[in-house]
Specification:
aldehyde dehydrogenase (NAD+) activity, 11 helices, 333 residues, two-stranded parallel sheet, alpha/beta, Epimerase_deHydtase
Protein backbone atom coordinates (compact mmCIF):
# COMPACT_ATOMS: atom_id res chain seq x y z
CA UNK A 1 0.00 0.00 0.00
CA UNK A 2 1.11 3.56 -0.66
CA UNK A 3 0.63 5.81 2.37
CA UNK A 4 0.97 9.54 2.98
CA UNK A 5 2.04 10.24 6.57
CA UNK A 6 2.23 13.45 8.57
CA UNK A 7 4.40 13.73 11.66
CA UNK A 8 6.84 11.12 10.39
CA UNK A 9 9.90 12.78 11.89
CA UNK A 10 8.37 13.02 15.38
CA UNK A 11 8.11 10.59 18.27
CA UNK A 12 4.74 8.99 17.47
CA UNK A 13 4.87 9.51 13.72
CA UNK A 14 8.38 8.12 13.58
CA UNK A 15 7.21 4.87 15.18
CA UNK A 16 4.34 4.72 12.69
CA UNK A 17 6.74 5.32 9.80
CA UNK A 18 9.08 2.53 10.89
CA UNK A 19 6.22 0.10 11.36
CA UNK A 20 4.67 0.88 7.98
CA UNK A 21 8.00 0.51 6.19
CA UNK A 22 8.75 -2.75 8.01
CA UNK A 23 5.35 -4.05 6.94
CA UNK A 24 6.23 -3.41 3.31
CA UNK A 25 4.27 -0.21 2.66
CA UNK A 26 5.63 2.69 0.63
CA UNK A 27 5.45 5.76 2.83
CA UNK A 28 5.55 9.35 1.61
CA UNK A 29 6.03 11.53 4.70
CA UNK A 30 5.61 15.27 4.99
CA UNK A 31 8.83 17.05 5.98
CA UNK A 32 8.95 20.74 6.84
CA UNK A 33 12.74 20.93 7.23
CA UNK A 34 15.93 19.31 5.98
CA UNK A 35 16.39 17.70 9.39
CA UNK A 36 12.93 16.16 9.21
CA UNK A 37 13.60 14.94 5.67
CA UNK A 38 16.82 13.25 6.82
CA UNK A 39 15.01 11.50 9.67
CA UNK A 40 12.30 10.27 7.31
CA UNK A 41 14.84 9.01 4.78
CA UNK A 42 16.82 7.22 7.51
CA UNK A 43 13.64 5.40 8.55
CA UNK A 44 12.98 4.25 5.00
CA UNK A 45 10.36 6.82 4.05
CA UNK A 46 10.15 9.17 1.10
CA UNK A 47 10.17 12.81 2.27
CA UNK A 48 7.67 15.26 0.80
CA UNK A 49 8.75 18.84 1.34
CA UNK A 50 5.99 20.93 2.89
CA UNK A 51 4.22 22.15 5.99
CA UNK A 52 0.67 21.48 7.19
CA UNK A 53 0.19 25.21 7.70
CA UNK A 54 0.56 25.57 3.92
CA UNK A 55 -3.00 24.23 3.78
CA UNK A 56 -4.48 27.31 5.45
CA UNK A 57 -2.61 29.92 3.48
CA UNK A 58 -4.47 31.87 0.77
CA UNK A 59 -4.29 30.29 -2.66
CA UNK A 60 -5.21 27.12 -4.49
CA UNK A 61 -3.33 24.78 -2.20
CA UNK A 62 0.30 23.68 -1.86
CA UNK A 63 1.98 21.69 -4.62
CA UNK A 64 2.74 18.81 -2.25
CA UNK A 65 -0.96 17.94 -2.12
CA UNK A 66 -0.48 16.29 -5.52
CA UNK A 67 0.95 13.29 -3.69
CA UNK A 68 -2.57 12.43 -2.50
CA UNK A 69 -3.42 11.37 -6.03
CA UNK A 70 -0.77 8.66 -5.79
CA UNK A 71 -1.56 7.07 -2.43
CA UNK A 72 -4.11 4.63 -1.03
CA UNK A 73 -4.26 6.03 2.49
CA UNK A 74 -3.42 9.03 4.66
CA UNK A 75 -2.24 8.68 8.25
CA UNK A 76 -2.43 12.02 10.03
CA UNK A 77 -0.39 11.88 13.23
CA UNK A 78 1.10 15.37 13.26
CA UNK A 79 -0.26 17.87 15.78
CA UNK A 80 0.82 20.85 17.80
CA UNK A 81 0.65 19.63 21.38
CA UNK A 82 0.79 21.75 24.52
CA UNK A 83 -0.90 21.66 27.93
CA UNK A 84 -1.44 25.41 27.96
CA UNK A 85 -2.88 27.96 25.61
CA UNK A 86 -6.18 29.27 24.20
CA UNK A 87 -8.45 27.20 22.00
CA UNK A 88 -7.86 29.41 18.97
CA UNK A 89 -4.17 28.49 18.83
CA UNK A 90 -5.10 24.82 18.45
CA UNK A 91 -7.88 25.62 16.00
CA UNK A 92 -5.41 27.46 13.78
CA UNK A 93 -2.57 24.96 14.08
CA UNK A 94 -4.46 21.67 14.32
CA UNK A 95 -8.13 21.78 13.36
CA UNK A 96 -7.99 23.94 10.24
CA UNK A 97 -5.01 22.13 8.60
CA UNK A 98 -6.52 18.74 9.50
CA UNK A 99 -9.87 19.63 7.97
CA UNK A 100 -8.17 20.91 4.82
CA UNK A 101 -6.03 17.77 4.52
CA UNK A 102 -9.07 15.54 4.97
CA UNK A 103 -11.07 17.42 2.35
CA UNK A 104 -8.11 17.19 -0.05
CA UNK A 105 -7.90 13.44 0.58
CA UNK A 106 -11.61 13.06 -0.14
CA UNK A 107 -11.24 15.08 -3.35
CA UNK A 108 -8.33 12.86 -4.38
CA UNK A 109 -10.46 9.74 -3.69
CA UNK A 110 -8.01 8.38 -1.14
CA UNK A 111 -9.49 5.16 0.21
CA UNK A 112 -8.61 5.56 3.88
CA UNK A 113 -7.88 8.44 6.27
CA UNK A 114 -6.58 7.46 9.72
CA UNK A 115 -6.66 10.31 12.23
CA UNK A 116 -4.61 10.11 15.42
CA UNK A 117 -6.71 11.92 18.01
CA UNK A 118 -6.34 11.72 21.81
CA UNK A 119 -7.99 9.88 24.67
CA UNK A 120 -7.86 13.16 26.59
CA UNK A 121 -10.94 14.34 24.68
CA UNK A 122 -12.80 12.84 27.66
CA UNK A 123 -10.48 14.12 30.39
CA UNK A 124 -12.15 16.96 32.22
CA UNK A 125 -15.74 17.00 33.40
CA UNK A 126 -16.10 13.25 32.80
CA UNK A 127 -15.11 11.64 36.11
CA UNK A 128 -15.91 8.01 35.20
CA UNK A 129 -13.43 5.35 36.26
CA UNK A 130 -13.71 3.63 32.87
CA UNK A 131 -14.77 5.16 29.57
CA UNK A 132 -15.39 3.76 26.12
CA UNK A 133 -16.44 5.22 22.80
CA UNK A 134 -20.08 5.42 23.92
CA UNK A 135 -19.28 7.44 27.05
CA UNK A 136 -20.24 11.09 27.22
CA UNK A 137 -16.92 12.87 26.71
CA UNK A 138 -17.96 15.87 28.78
CA UNK A 139 -15.74 18.93 28.40
CA UNK A 140 -11.98 18.55 28.32
CA UNK A 141 -9.95 20.80 30.61
CA UNK A 142 -7.21 21.77 28.17
CA UNK A 143 -7.59 23.44 24.78
CA UNK A 144 -5.57 20.79 22.93
CA UNK A 145 -8.10 18.11 23.88
CA UNK A 146 -11.18 20.25 23.33
CA UNK A 147 -10.01 21.03 19.80
CA UNK A 148 -9.11 17.39 19.15
CA UNK A 149 -12.71 16.43 19.88
CA UNK A 150 -14.03 19.28 17.77
CA UNK A 151 -11.79 18.11 14.92
CA UNK A 152 -13.21 14.59 15.11
CA UNK A 153 -16.75 15.95 15.10
CA UNK A 154 -16.20 18.29 12.16
CA UNK A 155 -14.56 15.63 10.00
CA UNK A 156 -17.31 13.12 10.70
CA UNK A 157 -20.04 15.37 9.30
CA UNK A 158 -18.15 16.34 6.15
CA UNK A 159 -18.97 14.54 2.85
CA UNK A 160 -16.51 11.67 2.59
CA UNK A 161 -17.13 10.21 -0.85
CA UNK A 162 -15.03 7.06 -1.24
CA UNK A 163 -12.80 7.90 1.73
CA UNK A 164 -13.27 6.01 5.00
CA UNK A 165 -12.29 7.87 8.17
CA UNK A 166 -11.01 5.96 11.21
CA UNK A 167 -10.16 7.80 14.43
CA UNK A 168 -7.67 6.42 16.96
CA UNK A 169 -7.58 7.82 20.52
CA UNK A 170 -4.41 6.97 22.48
CA UNK A 171 -3.80 8.30 26.03
CA UNK A 172 -0.32 9.08 27.43
CA UNK A 173 2.18 7.97 24.77
CA UNK A 174 5.46 6.53 25.94
CA UNK A 175 8.38 4.44 24.77
CA UNK A 176 11.91 4.60 23.50
CA UNK A 177 12.61 8.00 22.01
CA UNK A 178 10.14 9.98 24.12
CA UNK A 179 11.72 13.24 25.15
CA UNK A 180 9.48 16.23 25.79
CA UNK A 181 6.91 14.68 28.14
CA UNK A 182 9.42 12.61 30.08
CA UNK A 183 11.74 15.58 30.40
CA UNK A 184 8.91 17.54 31.97
CA UNK A 185 8.67 14.93 34.73
CA UNK A 186 12.45 14.88 35.16
CA UNK A 187 12.62 18.68 35.41
CA UNK A 188 9.90 18.63 38.03
CA UNK A 189 11.77 16.05 40.11
CA UNK A 190 15.10 17.85 39.83
CA UNK A 191 13.47 21.16 40.80
CA UNK A 192 11.95 19.54 43.88
CA UNK A 193 8.38 20.09 42.65
CA UNK A 194 7.35 16.49 42.05
CA UNK A 195 4.77 14.99 44.40
CA UNK A 196 2.35 12.13 44.12
CA UNK A 197 -1.33 12.87 44.51
CA UNK A 198 -2.92 10.58 47.11
CA UNK A 199 0.27 8.53 47.16
CA UNK A 200 0.08 7.76 43.45
CA UNK A 201 -2.71 5.25 44.00
CA UNK A 202 -5.01 6.43 41.21
CA UNK A 203 -5.24 4.32 38.06
CA UNK A 204 -3.65 5.69 34.90
CA UNK A 205 -3.81 4.32 31.38
CA UNK A 206 -1.22 4.70 28.65
CA UNK A 207 -0.17 3.52 25.20
CA UNK A 208 3.28 2.45 24.06
CA UNK A 209 4.15 4.19 20.82
CA UNK A 210 4.69 0.83 19.09
CA UNK A 211 1.17 -0.23 20.05
CA UNK A 212 -0.15 2.95 18.48
CA UNK A 213 1.83 2.17 15.34
CA UNK A 214 0.43 -1.35 15.27
CA UNK A 215 -3.22 -0.34 15.52
CA UNK A 216 -2.68 2.18 12.73
CA UNK A 217 -1.48 -0.59 10.44
CA UNK A 218 -4.68 -2.49 11.28
CA UNK A 219 -6.81 0.59 10.62
CA UNK A 220 -5.43 0.94 7.11
CA UNK A 221 -7.82 -1.69 5.80
CA UNK A 222 -10.22 -2.48 8.65
CA UNK A 223 -13.16 -0.63 10.16
CA UNK A 224 -16.10 1.18 8.65
CA UNK A 225 -16.18 4.92 7.99
CA UNK A 226 -16.60 6.84 11.22
CA UNK A 227 -15.08 4.20 13.47
CA UNK A 228 -13.56 5.66 16.67
CA UNK A 229 -11.35 3.52 18.91
CA UNK A 230 -9.50 4.09 22.13
CA UNK A 231 -6.16 2.27 22.19
CA UNK A 232 -3.96 1.47 25.19
CA UNK A 233 -1.45 -1.14 26.33
CA UNK A 234 -4.34 -2.95 28.02
CA UNK A 235 -2.48 -2.77 31.34
CA UNK A 236 -3.72 0.16 33.47
CA UNK A 237 -2.08 0.48 36.87
CA UNK A 238 -1.64 2.94 39.74
CA UNK A 239 0.34 6.02 38.77
CA UNK A 240 3.13 5.13 41.20
CA UNK A 241 3.49 1.67 39.66
CA UNK A 242 3.90 3.10 36.16
CA UNK A 243 5.83 6.32 36.58
CA UNK A 244 8.31 5.00 39.13
CA UNK A 245 9.83 2.42 36.75
CA UNK A 246 9.40 4.76 33.78
CA UNK A 247 11.48 7.49 35.40
CA UNK A 248 13.92 4.87 36.69
CA UNK A 249 14.88 4.16 33.06
CA UNK A 250 16.48 7.61 33.16
CA UNK A 251 18.05 7.14 36.57
CA UNK A 252 15.41 9.20 38.37
CA UNK A 253 14.17 7.81 41.69
CA UNK A 254 10.72 8.96 42.80
CA UNK A 255 9.97 6.04 45.09
CA UNK A 256 10.24 8.29 48.16
CA UNK A 257 8.60 11.38 46.68
CA UNK A 258 6.19 13.39 48.80
CA UNK A 259 2.44 12.96 48.52
CA UNK A 260 -0.30 15.60 48.55
CA UNK A 261 -3.99 14.78 49.18
CA UNK A 262 -6.20 15.49 46.19
CA UNK A 263 -8.49 17.46 48.50
CA UNK A 264 -5.61 19.91 48.90
CA UNK A 265 -4.11 19.70 45.42
CA UNK A 266 -7.33 20.20 43.46
CA UNK A 267 -8.38 23.65 44.77
CA UNK A 268 -4.75 24.77 44.70
CA UNK A 269 -4.52 23.77 41.02
CA UNK A 270 -7.68 25.73 40.21
CA UNK A 271 -6.35 28.78 42.04
CA UNK A 272 -2.97 28.63 40.31
CA UNK A 273 -4.55 28.21 36.89
CA UNK A 274 -6.99 31.08 37.45
CA UNK A 275 -4.15 33.36 38.51
CA UNK A 276 -1.99 32.36 35.53
CA UNK A 277 -4.82 33.05 33.10
CA UNK A 278 -5.57 36.41 34.75
CA UNK A 279 -2.03 37.58 34.14
CA UNK A 280 -2.03 35.99 30.68
CA UNK A 281 0.93 33.79 31.46
CA UNK A 282 2.58 32.20 28.43
CA UNK A 283 3.40 29.11 30.45
CA UNK A 284 1.36 26.81 32.64
CA UNK A 285 1.67 26.98 36.43
CA UNK A 286 3.31 24.02 38.21
CA UNK A 287 -0.07 22.54 39.12
CA UNK A 288 -3.21 22.59 36.96
CA UNK A 289 -6.60 20.84 36.87
CA UNK A 290 -5.21 18.79 33.97
CA UNK A 291 -2.53 17.31 36.24
CA UNK A 292 -5.17 16.59 38.88
CA UNK A 293 -7.27 14.80 36.24
CA UNK A 294 -4.34 12.72 35.06
CA UNK A 295 -2.54 11.87 38.30
CA UNK A 296 -5.28 12.32 40.89
CA UNK A 297 -8.26 10.57 39.37
CA UNK A 298 -8.84 6.97 38.27
CA UNK A 299 -9.11 6.62 34.51
CA UNK A 300 -9.15 3.46 32.39
CA UNK A 301 -9.97 3.29 28.68
CA UNK A 302 -11.95 0.26 27.51
CA UNK A 303 -10.34 -1.05 24.31
CA UNK A 304 -12.93 -3.74 23.55
CA UNK A 305 -13.96 -2.00 20.33
CA UNK A 306 -10.36 -1.88 19.09
CA UNK A 307 -10.03 -5.60 19.78
CA UNK A 308 -13.31 -6.56 18.10
CA UNK A 309 -13.44 -4.14 15.17
CA UNK A 310 -9.76 -3.88 14.29
CA UNK A 311 -8.38 -7.14 15.67
CA UNK A 312 -6.06 -5.23 17.99
CA UNK A 313 -3.93 -6.94 20.64
CA UNK A 314 -1.08 -5.01 22.26
CA UNK A 315 2.11 -5.77 20.34
CA UNK A 316 4.45 -4.84 23.19
CA UNK A 317 4.08 -5.22 26.94
CA UNK A 318 4.82 -2.56 29.52
CA UNK A 319 7.71 -4.63 30.86
CA UNK A 320 9.30 -4.98 27.43
CA UNK A 321 8.87 -1.29 26.71
CA UNK A 322 10.56 -0.36 29.97
CA UNK A 323 13.39 -2.80 29.27
CA UNK A 324 13.98 -1.23 25.86
CA UNK A 325 14.04 2.27 27.33
CA UNK A 326 16.48 1.31 30.08
CA UNK A 327 18.77 -0.44 27.60
CA UNK A 328 18.67 2.51 25.21
CA UNK A 329 19.59 4.92 28.01
CA UNK A 330 22.46 2.70 29.18
CA UNK A 331 23.88 2.32 25.67
CA UNK A 332 23.54 6.05 25.03
CA UNK A 333 25.75 7.04 27.95
Amino acid sequence: MKVFLTGGSGFAGGAVLRRLVNDGHTVHALARSATAADAITSAGGLPVSGDLLDLVKPGSGPAWLQILGEVDAVVHSAAFMAFWGPDQVFVDRNLLPTRALYQAAVDARVKRFVLVSAASVSTGTNHDHTVDENSDTGKANIAYSRVKLRTEQELLVLPHGNTSLVVIRPPFLWGQGMTHTLQGFIDSVEAGRFSWIDGGRHMVDFCHVDNLAYIITLALDRGDHGLICYVTDGSPRPARDFFTPLLATRGIDVSAANSVPRAVASPLATLMQTAAKARRSATAPPLTPWIISFMGRDRVYDITRARLRLGYQPAITVEEGLRQMALSHTMGR
